[in-house]
Amino acid sequence: MNDRSALTSRQVRLLKKFYTEGKTIEVHTVEKTQDELARELGITRQALSNHLKVLKELGYIRTGRGFIDLTDKALDLLGEKKGDVFVFVRIEPTKRKRVYESVKNLRIKRIYRVTGDIDLIIEADKTKLDEILEEIASLDGVRETITHVVLEVL
Fold first, then answer.
1. Using CA atoms, how far apart are residues 62 and 71, in angstroms rounded to an integer?
2. Are 76 and 105 in contact (CB under 8 A)?
3. Cα separation of 108 and 126, whole Å?
4. Is the dihedral of CA 93, 99, 104, 109 positive or negative?
5. For residue 147, what are the β-bridge partners?
């Protein structure tokens, strides 16, 4: 029995409606247990739970089983500049595979291998741009990077 057969036709219609009417959002998610977080912070699980409750009530986080999402309100408070960048990368043909493997380890959203006069398009968060460019530039085989900062999504 697959998951779809466990749903009513109305539930499937609801999911389709949510999908067609929904918009894609970026979320900063922490996938750790409260025990792990409490231990890392050097506080009790109960103290952490109290802090999370306040942060959730104030609209800074969303929580669920095994995850904590930061909201836009939290990112604004932290002074994080939201936005995306696209980094176009040209690579020495003989070193492409090595560069591809190295780039997969970067803290980025997506990597696109493309045809044309560039080899990769890297989609990343603007707040990580300096770090990403530094790491890409250090890779043996990278010929050139061209960076485009997204000003607005239309």
1. 7
2. no
3. 10
4. negative
5. 87
For the chain, list the strands marked E by DSSP. 28-30, 61-64, 67-70, 84-91, 110-113, 120-125, 142-149
pLDDT tens-digit profile of 19-36?
677 655 666 788 888 898
CA 58 to CA 41: how far, in whole Å?
21
In tens, the pLDDT along 37-79 reads 899 999 999 999 999 999 999 888 888 887 888 887 887 777 6
Q: Which two tokens stand for residue 19?
A: 């999908």
Among candidate residues 130, 145, 139, 147, the one with its CA nearest the CA of residue 97: 139
Distance CA 53, CA 55 (A): 6
pTM equals 0.55
